[in-house]
């Protein structure tokens, strides 16, 4: 019995000469909240489209709860919130949500769906008269019209205000706590850091990193160390162990190190007495930039 929610095995999808997804293999599990990160054009939306059966793979295999994506969707196991695609024009929010509920094999009550997405107040409004953020809330309602085992979200909080974002992520956390799998593509790395228990970094259709946010930060290798010296000798500092970067500005030295403890220890070993010593981890955003830029440099 395969317990995976999603399995990609060697999946490839090209548009002409562009390999949008390039030999991608991964497995997502029930209860996981997974962030899909990557620079523009990395293949995030294509990956989600393949997962939802909206596009066929050129090669490889995509399974959702052990079946084809289409079958999983027909069985109501998947809820999705995508970036593109207009909402129907001449219907109200309530009518559209009602329709989504009626199509779901395990629907929630319409009133509950409206309320959870914060659109009760605008339920009678035509969907083509909504603001961008309201439209996002309606998409959120559609993705949670029923009890789905996998929820797929493409940049879900774009345009949402703070309270909509908070309500949104609280709902997604609840879903994950109930054993549902939540997969979301995002450019908001602080959201990925705060919400995801697993982070996938895509780059040119390949998986560059897969782990917790803490593991991704560690993989980027570095911690930031800054300190002041009375007399800076760049040559001596350049010889410090585990350095991955150094900048000197006046008496202030900023370095990145893959082993900050050993680097600082060696600093004292040189007979130097750093003042105002600060050691900090890289944020997920800096780690993401470091990982993707290193890959760019490697494949250039
Ligand atoms: N329908 C299409 N026809 C041709 N090329 C496409 C098509 N859709 C995507 N691509 C190309 O495939 C690559 C991956 O695109 P994709 O939209 O999956 O990336 P993404 O990671 O979602 O990007 P973004 O962060 O900008 O939304 C890009 O180079 C893109 O130009």
TrEMBL record:
Cited InterPro entries: AAA+_ATPase (IPR003593), ABC_transporter-like_ATP-bd (IPR003439), ABC_transporter_ATP-binding (IPR050763), P-loop_NTPase (IPR027417)
Major localisation: membrane
Gene Ontology terms describing biological process: response to antibiotic
Protein's membrane topology: Peripheral membrane protein
MF annotations from Gene Ontology: ATP binding; ATP hydrolysis activity
Family matches, as CDD domains: ABC_DR_subfamily_A
Keyword list, A-Z: Antibiotic resistance, ATP-binding, Nucleotide-binding, Transport
Origin: domain of life: Bacteria
One GO CC term, this protein: plasma membrane
ABC transporter domain mapped to chain residues: 6-229
SUPFAM superfamilies found in the cross-reference section: P-loop containing nucleoside triphosphate hydrolases
Gene3D superfamilies: P-loop containing nucleotide triphosphate hydrolases
PROSITE patterns reported in the protein's UniProt record: ABC_TRANSPORTER_2
Subcellular location: Cell membrane
Name used for this protein in its record: ABC transporter ATP-binding protein
């Amino acid at each position: 019995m395969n317990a995976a929610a999603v399995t990609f095995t060697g999946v490839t999808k090209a548009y002409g000469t562009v390999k949008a997804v390039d030999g991608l293999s991964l497995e997502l599990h029930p209860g996981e909240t997974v962030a899909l990160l990557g620079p523009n054009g990395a293949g995030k939306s294509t990956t989600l489209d393949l997962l939802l059966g909206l596009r066929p793979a050129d090669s490889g295999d995509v399974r959702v709860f052990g079946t084809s994506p289409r079958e999983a969707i027909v069985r109501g196991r998947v809820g999705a919130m995508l970036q593109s695609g207009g909402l129907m024009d001449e219907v109200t929010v309530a009518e559209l949500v009602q329709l989504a509920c009626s199509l779901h094999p395990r629907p929630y009550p319409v009133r509950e769906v409206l309320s959870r997405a914060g659109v009760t107040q605008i339920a009678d409004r035509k969907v083509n008269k909504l603001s961008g953020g309201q439209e996002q809330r309606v998409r959120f309602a559609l993705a949670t019209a029923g009890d789905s085992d996998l929820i797929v979200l493409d940049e879900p909080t774009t345009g949402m205000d703070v309270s909509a974002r908070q309500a949104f992520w609280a709902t997604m956390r609840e879903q994950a706590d109930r054993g549902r799998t939540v997969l979301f593509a995002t450019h908001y790395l602080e959201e990925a850091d705060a919400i995801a228990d697993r982070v996938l970094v895509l780059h040119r259709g390949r998986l560059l990193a897969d782990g917790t946010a803490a593991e991704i930060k560690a993989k980027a290798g570095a911690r930031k160390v800054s300190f002041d010296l009375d007399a800076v000798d760049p040559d001596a500092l350049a010889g410090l162990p585990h350095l991955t970067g150094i900048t000197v500005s006046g008496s202030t030295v900023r370095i990145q190190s893959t082993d900050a403890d050993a680097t600082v220890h060696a600093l004292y070993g040189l007979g130097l007495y750093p003042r105002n010593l600060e050691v900090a981890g890289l944020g997920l955003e800096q780690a993401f930039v470091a990982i993707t830029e290193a890959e760019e440099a490697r494949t250039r």
